[in-house]
Design a protein that fits this description.
- 2 copies of one chain form a homodimer.
- Chain A is of the alpha+beta class and 760 residues long.
- Chain A has a domain of 289 residues: Beta-galactosidase, Chain A, domain 5, CATH 2.70.98.
- Helices cover 28% and strands 23% of the residues of chain A.
- Chain A has a 9-stranded antiparallel sheet with strand order 9-10-11-12-20-16-15-14-18.
- The longest helix of chain A has 21 residues.
- Chain A is globular.
- The interface between A and B is large, with 55 and 55 residues.
- Chains A, B: Monomer.
- Chains A, B: This is Putative alpha-1,2-mannosidase.
- Chains A, B: Keywords: Calcium.
- Chains A, B: Its cofactor is Ca(2+).
């Protein structure tokens, strides 16, 4: 009976799929899992709380307090070149350059119980298993792999808050499903703060795990349900320093004892299985309580039909992908839809089905009329990801802005988030780019909340004098180099952020605020050293710092970049930047230099987060600060160079291979860059309603807007060589200024590019 | 204006007090704070959540994992002989033999900031202060002391959930109020699991502290409010291993930084003060959240009038004490009312003003129609404390039983509590004496809940085979000595507990349950060795263990006692015990021996929890197992010996001096023994509605029952020498069987003792 229902469900879904294009087929989550991409191949739902994915190693973040650089490649828990899988854990970042998560690692095994993970070179010594990519499938919302050591087939899917596992076992009386509550990504000795578990009955386990990691005070609650009862279970507490465990003489706490608590716990659940018997697990998360985790599970998966869940999740993905329907080569479709997939992974839902979530104040809140989100990697995502959301995820983006406002309301610092992570701000990276996201969302009409209160929050944040030298920046117009090693990039970033506040103030007729912040928007000029033609650190006495190397990424006043890339960071006023730098001709040559220079080997030795492949000339695409730079030719007399460069970047930096991302995907920013550029335009300065025009890679794109209208991009005479734009019309009228306004897109219409292999 | 209001409040209270007797004057919390009593002198409300009291040292529970025996005397955080006070913390146990708590230690200081507690021999090296008992006052609900090092007067009072401090400062620009979030009683290296603090504004601080101690998973939330704004504040995080603190370069987290988290935090708040300026603090606790702590504070103390709070709390105490009004010598009144005070400290309220509490499952629950309690030291308190509640705290006792039932409902083990401590069971001591408390409460008519469900919970607990050898006990009728070193006391205690279940089953007409448990109630016989006349460990093969020493408290099969004391532990069937031991004559001689023997020095060397003063002959009053024994003469032909002994015990074991308690008060059990015995009767077997009659110490006692009736005990011809009871009448009728039934008391009436210096 169940089989028939599954088949019917399948057929119905095929019919439904047919009404939208099957775009899920172009999503290859394996792209970017080798080397620098730092994405994971496992199963997740669009913007979902759960990211159920295989972890291929257990390298700690630090040993005896000392940072271990080998951990870096495991930001997503998975590296394509690894030969073993340790287990499947339920939370992962996508594409970050630092990490956390990897909570609740589950691993099916057969044979003698081994309560340690083993090592990569000796997998049989522990519960991990060898595997081969030949027996691995990764799709949007679905992952499958054969675990070779014990001949178990593992399949994973996920709804928003629940991960679902399906394990096909051989015949055995010795199956053990491991639940490792010690495991984690970027783990270190004292990272596990506390773990609490209740074995409620022989199919239900609940509890929570609390960590001190990148989220300083981070607790995740869970409910784990098995499709059939376990015959027994046990645990081991690996913490030698835990004095109080409950009186151990009274009962054996290691076997079949249902009240468990400690810092370092591993559990196992025992089963008998027939040949090819499938044992399934539903694993729900909650930020708030075990009760809510159970409720999430009951609401999202009230049955045991794995295929049904997989189909539903893939249909959800397909619906999201159909927001932009393109015609392009197969490889380009793979790159495009994989990018859309990566762009719709975070920010992540951080709220239970009943609306409750954990606030920044560590108290339980109820979200009234919005979905609460976290995982705001704002230094990356303000640039193109949130602007993309203002086209095809306007409702979600409105909720994301609302989440930021709630964070502000709960903050004793009275600041918007810098980097929001599970009821914490980890304050990572620089700037206060939430103001850019908020301004862009309001100016582009996405935000449904109180815009004036939002502006107040932006202003309070930008006036927080005690935060990262903002006081100095306000008083002097720049930050003295003696104060911090990122004085210049801070000033440039604050300057742009302040400009977005001014735009928002202008829209809301708050003239005083506008006047205050439009002045601050010019402070970038204070770090420009005309004598060398670069942005340069300035000392407290007003002189520029003597030692200066425009190529070096260390000690030059810039975060994760060098002066060559950062000197172009005045996205809100390229015209003034060009003037300041000496005019269009000089500026054009500078850009040319950037894209064609040869970098010395020393550059690569000292720089993280990118590879040689992430660089074109000296232009670093693998990290964010230069993402707008290729479009700056549009402000010179040689806009055709923008067209050539962006097509070049798309070709070089995005490939449909495991190693296909030249740098960390950074929670979707790299992907969002690609999506815009493929369609032929890019938001150089979010907060402005203008997009700068580049060179589309697609043959055709239809943006199916949430307001029901469609914006179509038609590309005539498209080919690999035809990178130059001969002409553009918008709804029949000629477009000559290399830009298009947001209002034109959202009212629907048609933009026609005619391409050529020669530039104008 | 405030002063006038205070005076008027004062006058009104005097008038109100006048309508009840002023009994608070007889309460001396200092009694028992020297050596063994383990009580604290600070301020608390009847059954209150807060116990705001001075801590006089900081000895850790363990160092490098090794137990430190010096910690034992600091179970209550205070020892009378100490010369310094470290600070005032908000939670303490009263009279326990193991410990925890001491959360949120506050200390006012002046001068150079010192963020360490200093040492007892060098108080000036840290924030602690010297003090003298000459400048110390301890009353019910009020504590005062002069801190000599900085010349600060400290006063404390408390409502149920809020501690209030009033500090009178000298003139200074350098006042610092320390908040030590690392401090605790029975502390050890990794006990502090996590601490989180928000400085909400310049008068309000909230947060929580989470420990792994005697309560394995224990979190306390707080809200701290100052009567005037602090001018600045700071913190220091003493955890060298905490890697993630939030990005430190961005702001100075040590001064005026309002978002704080870590394992080892000390904070300070800075003030300027005028000469004799009073700075006050309201410090509220909650088991659930910071929001609830604030609400508790607003509900319980919505103003800043310290005197008003003190008066209200003392009036609450006085109302409680007036439940039994006695006429006796001044010293005896002091002993009696101090005992009543100690008897009404725990169990403690564990619920917010909105009814929410943290359950055993670590989830938030709402108490529907009852007050939730914790701190159930059941091995001690089932004997006389809860029986006392069935006379003068029936509503509270009903709620306590309800709390136990909720604990059972939330338990994955499906057991009633053994030792309930702040949303944990620490499973301390032995037996499952909650069943005795529940049976007694139902049989005596206190419990308002579902009695059959309560019986079900008792039965499930007593059938928990895997808990501390209950399975063996069920199967064999005794526990094999090879299984545990407390095999005999377990059997004796289970046997009595089972008898109480049988009584409850009989009352509820559950015949099958009655039959099952009345059989088990006889299992004590299996450990009786007629060849030696003592209870003795029995091996798995059915033979008694060869090595046997009836005086030794180690390895003889008894918890915290020896065979000499435990062999009398068949409180539910003294008649059968006497038969089994060979008849009344032999039994009487045995009791005589117990009370007159000389103990060897080795006994004292190997035994904790009592002193020589706690012992009469070989009878150990300082610990609980023998508390009923002096009454057993009533089952012999020489009941007058009961009368002599109980008068002797009262005289020797209870004195109105700091060293006045011969053993740990054990959450009120020692005190309850005294209260009953002073009035002339004692509940030898809770679960039975009978009280065994002894020899009253009072001249007169009026029990003002909650049902509005009064039971009066009149004692004629009373004196120190007149310890023997010549005759007793109850409502005019003669009482000849040395017992009185509960029903006689609660319907009101008059019992008249006529005393004599000669026995019958």
């Amino acid at each position: 009976m169940k089989r028939i229902v599954s088949i019917i469900t399948c057929l119905i879904s095929i019919v439904v799929f047919a009404q939208k294009k099957n775009l899920v087929q172009y999503v290859k989550p394996i792209i970017g899992t080798q080397r620098m991409g730092h994405v994971y191949p496992g199963a997740t739902s669009p913007f979902g709380m759960v990211q159920l994915s295989p972890d291929t190693d257990t390298i700690p973040y630090a040993v005896k307090g000392k940072y271990n650089p080998d951990v870096y490649k495991y930001c997503a828990g998975y590296q394509y070149d690894d030969k073993t899988i340790v287990g499947f854990s339920h939370t992962h970042f996508s594409g970050t350059g630092h990490s956390d998560l990897g909570d609740f690692q589950v691993m099916p095994t057969v044979g003698k119980l081994q309560l340690n993970p083993g090592t990569a070179d000796k997998p049989l010594s522990g519960f991990r298993s060898s595997f081969s990519h030949k027996n691995e499938v990764a799709e949007a919302g679905y992952y499958k792999v054969k675990l070779d050591d014990d001949n178990i087939l593992a399949e994973l899917t996920a709804t928003t808050r629940v991960g679902m596992h399906q394990y096909t076992f051989p015949k055995t009386n010795d199956a053990h499903i491991i639940l490792d509550l010690m495991a984690g990504i970027y783990n270190y000795e004292d990272k596990n703060v506390w773990t609490f578990v209740r074995v409620v009955n022989d199919t239900l386990v609940t509890g929570y795990k609390q960590n001190n990691g990148w989220g300083r005070t981070r607790t995740v609650y869970f409910a784990m349900s098995f499709s059939k009862p376990f015959k027994g279970y046990g645990q081991k507490n690996f913490d030698t320093k835990q004095i109080y465990r409950g009186f151990w003489r009274k009962f054996n706490q290691e076997q079949n004892f249902p009240e468990i608590a400690g810092k370092k716990i591993r559990m196992y659940f025992d089963f008998d299985t027939e040949e090819n018997e499938k044992v399934k697990i539903k694993f729900a998360l909650s930020p708030v309580s075990q009760k809510n985790a159970i409720e999430n599970m009951q609401n999202e998966i009230p049955h045991w039909d794995f295929e049904k869940v997989k189909l539903q999740t893939q249909e959800n993905w397909n619906n999201e992908l159909n927001k932009i329907v393109i015609d392009a080569s197969n490889d380009n479709k793979i790159n495009f839809y994989t990018a859309m997939y990566h762009a719709f992974i975070s920010p992540t839902t951080y709220m239970d089905t009943n609306g409750e979530y954990k606030g920044l104040d560590q108290e339980v809140h109820k979200a009234a009329g919005f979905t609460n989100y976290t995982t705001f990697s704002l230094w990356d995502t303000y640039r193109a990801l949130h602007p993309l959301f203002n086209l095809v995820q306007t409702n979600r983006n409105s909720d994301m802005v609302q989440s930021m406002i709630e964070h502000y309301n709960q903050s004793t610092l009275k600041m918007l988030p810098i980097w929001s992570h599970y009821a914490n701000d980890n304050w990572c990276m620089s700037g206060y780019h939430s103001v850019s996201v908020i301004a862009d969302a309001i100016i582009k009409g996405s935000y449904k909340g109180d815009a004036n209160k939002a502006l107040d929050a932006c202003v309070a944040t930008a006036r927080k004098r005690s935060y990262e030298n903002i006081g100095d920046y306000i008083d002097k117009g720049y930050i003295a180099a003696e104060k911090t090693d990122i004085s210049v990039s801070n000033t440039l970033e604050y300057s742009y952020d302040d400009w977005t506040i001014a735009q928002l103030a202008k829209k809301l007729n708050r003239q005083d605020i506008y006047n205050e912040f439009i002045k601050r928007a010019d402070h970038w000029k204070n770090n420009y050293d005309a004598s060398v033609g670069f942005m340069r650190p300035k000392l407290a006495d007003g002189t520029f710092k003597k030692e200066f190397d425009e190529l070096s990424t260390h000690g030059q006043g810039f975060i994760e970049g060098n002066s060559w890339n950062y000197s172009f960071f005045v996205p809100h006023n390229p015209t003034a930047l060009i003037d300041t730098m000496g005019g269009k001709s000089i500026f054009t040559k500078k850009l040319d230099n950037l894209f064609t220079m040869h970098l010395p080997d020393s550059f690569f030795a000292e720089t993280e987060d990118i590879t040689r492949d992430g660089i074109i000339g000296g232009y670093v695409h693998g990290n964010e600060p230069a993402h707008h730079v290729a479009y700056l030719y549009n402000w010179t007399n040689q806009p055709w160079k923008t067209q050539a460069q962006v097509r070049n970047i798309m070709k070089m930096q995005y490939k449909p291979t495991p190693d296909g991302l030249g740098g960390n995907d950074d929670c979707g920013q790299m992907s969002a860059w690609y999506i815009f550029s493929s369609m032929g335009f890019y938001p150089v300065a979010p907060g402005s309603s203008e997009y700068s025009i580049g060179s589309p890679l697609v043959n055709n794109a239809k943006i199916n807007l949430e307001n029901g209208k469609t914006f179509e991009i038609v590309v005539k005479n498209q080919s690999d060589k035809n990178v130059f734009v001969k002409s553009i019309t918008l709804n029949g009228k000629s477009v000559n200024n290399h830009s298009i306004d947001h209002s034109e897109i959202v009212k629907g219409g048609k933009m026609i590019f005619t391409m050529s292999n020669k530039h104008n």
